[in-house]
């Protein structure tokens, strides 16, 4: 990728390197399939992403509007330093002018409740899972049923069921969810829960969803074995679909989950690699399950490779947006409730998007990230600096861009309630407070 | 390059404990390599080989001889099956972290050592048995096949299955070695080390399980995924049964049927399901599937009875398992009079005297003999399941191995 440099700065070399590294991260985020252009805002050293379509057409979708307005607001002078040389709007004026075009475009929000659309299937979910986890051993039964009490968000099955519907309508098979697709939704929730059980042991957390965690109640050893048990029963359910491709797709998720957990163990020494490391980890730990579930139900709904890939892209972007919002809520959510953020991630030594963004404004965060906030006062200082920085807003911006990408992936699905619900889901997840 | 990676991993692991292991380990590397090469160039060498069938009489007596003969037949030393998994970045990462565990008493270290340097007792025979059963069953007569499809008489998918079986077993051992942090005693070492050991154990076990799952998926046969997943489920269920929960020696409820159930769940299920899956993968008949399943299950019963008799009668080999759950004592409960039961009720785990008294009374009731009889019965059942296969080197090797692992020393 070549850049036309409009204005040089003193720290040019170091800065460019940083930019290029972040662009790589962005490329990873958006996938390499399309030709994306990047505008870079210098002062806060953020990467603002805009897709090629915004440069060519005279209409801006909400994503590009946000990114460009954002750029403009912060750009007092010539703050856009580098643009791909191919971009036809390679100066600030053009971008500014451009941004005002999109400003008046109203957002189309459709008032549709995603949950309502698949209510019947969602309602029986917990029971279906419990049926799958049927065993004679009382303790095993109690422990394996523990988290399937119907109180969880069951976000993954919801996405899987809606995607099933959207796919089936697109391929003209049915307007309902097929039983094999429902099995995939169940498997997704089971894999997710098994991974939660294991994560809680690794992170030594005593609570989960406001109740006592399994490891706190029954000890670490049995919790891990229950996690494995849930996984084995999920595999049995998965095998019942009789589709080797679907089995392969969902099995690959397990490898992603483990390798994501491994990535979380170590932090990159190089500041520039950190963001892409974080994004890869986010994909593996969260987005992979959602993305591959979407792909699996699309295949079961007889979608061709192209459409299955679109379904996958929807899930991937939705998953990353979901996790980004999760990471920023760790800094803000409890602030509203308890007046003080919990910063649970920081306490675990994890540097998530808000911190990584903040570190660009406050380099003193870097050594803390490296030592995983282990020195007394690190967590407090980091929290304070994140609050002072634009880290949270920038994370939100990134999340909203992924949400928009997710919505874009749905363009080729036939218009239906299910598709609208998926679009709405991508929007409302940005607004969630917990 | 492979061997280099391994060297560094295990050097990291063992440099602080014992270099003996390392040298022992490095000695075997050329062996794998030469073996693999020979598989590639002469895939059928072992089939063509005209080797006189040894008669039952001169069957190798020692276990290691039986194993090494069997390994030659399948052209692949099984002890290194799960080692391939260890070559990944993730595990080298673990190995690096595990250095911190050296000197602590976390069970993960022991499992890791056993995984690479097979001790006398936990040699990885599962994979070997699966491959031998595959070879004994031979190619599917219905489906046309070329000699290239099979290496040393085993389909690649069956070989992969054998490897997966070992990986799953290892993963289950690692996960069972996780300790409850609230139960640890000061002698175990600092809490932080045990916590770290747990973390490593969770991750490495998960890593092995996830590679096993995706390996299984790649076999492209949903029935096999189902069978092996059931086996994993059984192994986990075994840790939650009442029999498992009861550690008290005087606990009188455990019957031999409970013992059988426990052994089937914790050990038999995996081998039985894997042997069956090997038949499924080759497209053999339901009848052969049943026979292979029964072979796997009965081998484990015979082996476990033999192990428990040895560990009950031979105090040196006494395991940490409390005698109350050992097969001879379980049978004793069914045979003993009320008077004789008192020995069990008064048994104190710390006293040698008390132990000897229990041993004598168990002998007197004939429970030990009955246990030995049962061991032979299960061995014969296992061998009888092989009747459906025609005579071959592989079948003979199976018989030799079963005999070796169920022979009471």
Automatic annotation (TrEMBL), chain A:
<dbReference type="InterPro" id="IPR033749">
    <property type="entry name" value="Polyprenyl_synt_CS"/>
</dbReference>
<keyword id="KW-0460">Magnesium</keyword>
<comment type="similarity">
    <text>Belongs to the FPP/GGPP synthase family.</text>
</comment>
<keyword id="KW-0496">Mitochondrion</keyword>
<protein>
    <recommendedName>
        <fullName>All trans-polyprenyl-diphosphate synthase PDSS1</fullName>
        <ecNumber>2.5.1.91</ecNumber>
    </recommendedName>
</protein>
<dbReference type="GO" id="GO:0008299">
    <property type="term" value="P:isoprenoid biosynthetic process"/>
</dbReference>
<dbReference type="Pfam" id="PF00348">
    <property type="entry name" value="polyprenyl_synt"/>
</dbReference>
<keyword id="KW-0479">Metal-binding</keyword>
<keyword id="KW-0443">Lipid metabolism</keyword>
<dbReference type="GO" id="GO:0006744">
    <property type="term" value="P:ubiquinone biosynthetic process"/>
</dbReference>
<keyword id="KW-0414">Isoprene biosynthesis</keyword>
<dbReference type="GO" id="GO:0046872">
    <property type="term" value="F:metal ion binding"/>
</dbReference>
<keyword id="KW-0808">Transferase</keyword>
<dbReference type="GO" id="GO:0097269">
    <property type="term" value="F:all-trans-decaprenyl-diphosphate synthase activity"/>
</dbReference>
<dbReference type="InterPro" id="IPR008949">
    <property type="entry name" value="Isoprenoid_synthase_dom_sf"/>
</dbReference>
<comment type="function">
    <text>Heterotetrameric enzyme that catalyzes the condensation of farnesyl diphosphate (FPP), which acts as a primer, and isopentenyl diphosphate (IPP) to produce prenyl diphosphates of varying chain lengths and participates in the determination of the side chain of ubiquinone. Supplies nona and decaprenyl diphosphate, the precursors for the side chain of the isoprenoid quinones ubiquinone-9 (Q9)and ubiquinone-10 (Q10) respectively. The enzyme adds isopentenyl diphosphate molecules sequentially to farnesyl diphosphate with trans stereochemistry.</text>
</comment>
<dbReference type="InterPro" id="IPR000092">
    <property type="entry name" value="Polyprenyl_synt"/>
</dbReference>
<comment type="subunit">
    <text>Heterotetramer composed of 2 PDSS1/DPS1 and 2 PDSS2/DLP1 subunits.</text>
</comment>
<dbReference type="GO" id="GO:0032478">
    <property type="term" value="C:heterotetrameric polyprenyl diphosphate synthase complex"/>
</dbReference>
UniProtKB/TrEMBL annotation, chain B:
<protein>
    <submittedName>
        <fullName>All trans-polyprenyl-diphosphate synthase PDSS2-like</fullName>
    </submittedName>
</protein>
<dbReference type="Pfam" id="PF00348">
    <property type="entry name" value="polyprenyl_synt"/>
</dbReference>
<dbReference type="InterPro" id="IPR000092">
    <property type="entry name" value="Polyprenyl_synt"/>
</dbReference>
<dbReference type="GO" id="GO:0006744">
    <property type="term" value="P:ubiquinone biosynthetic process"/>
</dbReference>
<dbReference type="InterPro" id="IPR008949">
    <property type="entry name" value="Isoprenoid_synthase_dom_sf"/>
</dbReference>
<dbReference type="GO" id="GO:0008299">
    <property type="term" value="P:isoprenoid biosynthetic process"/>
</dbReference>
<dbReference type="GO" id="GO:1990234">
    <property type="term" value="C:transferase complex"/>
</dbReference>
<keyword id="KW-0808">Transferase</keyword>
<dbReference type="GO" id="GO:0004659">
    <property type="term" value="F:prenyltransferase activity"/>
</dbReference>
<dbReference type="GO" id="GO:0005739">
    <property type="term" value="C:mitochondrion"/>
</dbReference>
<comment type="similarity">
    <text>Belongs to the FPP/GGPP synthase family.</text>
</comment>
